[in-house]
Design brief:
homodimer, two-stranded antiparallel ribbon, 29% helix, seven-stranded antiparallel β-sheet, cell membrane (chains A, B), lipid metabolism (chains A, B), cytoplasm (chains A, B), Thiol Ester Dehydrase, Chain A, HotDog_dom_sf (chains A, B), mitochondrion inner membrane (chains A, B)
Amino acid sequence: MARSLGRICKGFQCLGSVSSIQTQLRQPSTSVSVRGTTFVRTMVQALPSLFSSKPRDFSLPNSSWGSEMMRLYEHYNGQCKAETEGGEKQEGPWRRLPSYNRLLKYATGGVYLSKIIQSKARLFTRNIRDPGAAFEYVLFVNSEEQKCVCVFQAGHLLEGPPGHVHGGAIATMIDTVTGTHATILSGPVMTANLNINYRSPIPLGSTVLLESFLDKKEGRKTFISCKVTSSDGSKLHTETTALFLSINFSHLLLGE
Amino acid sequence: MARSLGRICKGFQCLGSVSSIQTQLRQPSTSVSVRGTTFVRTMVQALPSLFSSKPRDFSLPNSSWGSEMMRLYEHYNGQCKAETEGGEKQEGPWRRLPSYNRLLKYATGGVYLSKIIQSKARLFTRNIRDPGAAFEYVLFVNSEEQKCVCVFQAGHLLEGPPGHVHGGAIATMIDTVTGTHATILSGPVMTANLNINYRSPIPLGSTVLLESFLDKKEGRKTFISCKVTSSDGSKLHTETTALFLSINFSHLLLGE
């Protein structure tokens, strides 16, 4: 039962990620390679009234972003597909992914939603509104290369060793990036394993890069690797392998 | 250089943990088995003016603690060594470890402190003061059995999958518990690896147990395993192996 509930929840997380990507792209047909996307899209189209207001996208620049954060954001954002004001399509290999403090905050219905909603609940990485105090990050996905990058600026509330980022905060960003990447690649998934090697500490306030790669897919399993480096790539902070298990989306809704 | 700085920082983290244990025990000679304790104690005794005020101990009960959190706290706390008001010593195999939002907040000097202090920085697991909103936890150590337990109540700001705890928040608690345990067992250490298998999700608001065990020590390496279960032990949430590397404490202070 709890396992089923877990599947339900993970499924809603996936729905959130995938539908967010699609909302961002605003294209009925997307080139993002997602198994099960059709079903997810049907769900999103069938339940438009679920979303009662437009949530804040935390992945856009704010006053706390330092020069390195801005430089890397502009580097990848400049290579994103976009539609200009004149209606022209700008080509590019990358997509920026929006990020919210909770998708379900904006939902008002659903068979299982009422059972699992806690109105005060917030996404762990977006639970502090003070800009720059905690996790400042933005994800980009490159579907052709089956790669994700995340630009991450670590705020002063993420301390572990004095002056440096807590190992758990680093694990949190790794889980976020690889989990999002696995969802894009394989549809609804559950995290099964994170194996993190810590090589060198990350100073508080610094901006680092997380790069996520597809290693292989075998049946229900999606294997992802991820490295965290300094913003110029010269220093390796962590190396990670991650395993995700695909789950049946219809089972999520039925609680089976 | 950054590696050295990391060592310095990890060392101060260890100093914090070990000296906190000693402060808690209020005994000049402790039975806690800590390599390098003598050196740490000398440091603490030599720099009494560093600590200008008594910090808040976050590991004591507050109004947010639910019945299961209180039951487990009392279960272990009742088995702790303590000195009664009459001066009698109450025997017990466990020790409760205090927990602060930052040790260096209360420091006012030191060769390296001024270089690494960021006055607004807070320990990641103690960065929210609203009781019950995030990480509510208390650690106990059993030196004879070389075991630690942590009672953890997961607040609504730790959400990942809707209604459940973020995998990164779970990793954060695992890093905290195993890192503290390794410090007690081996003195100053650095986290080198966390390998986490996620078995079943943890509902927000629930209380779980983290149990940490020494697997073996080989030279500089301390191998710890940790499992997270429901409070009655019937459901397994995660299984983890962790590796920590001992570091030379004198090198920490010299920045070598």
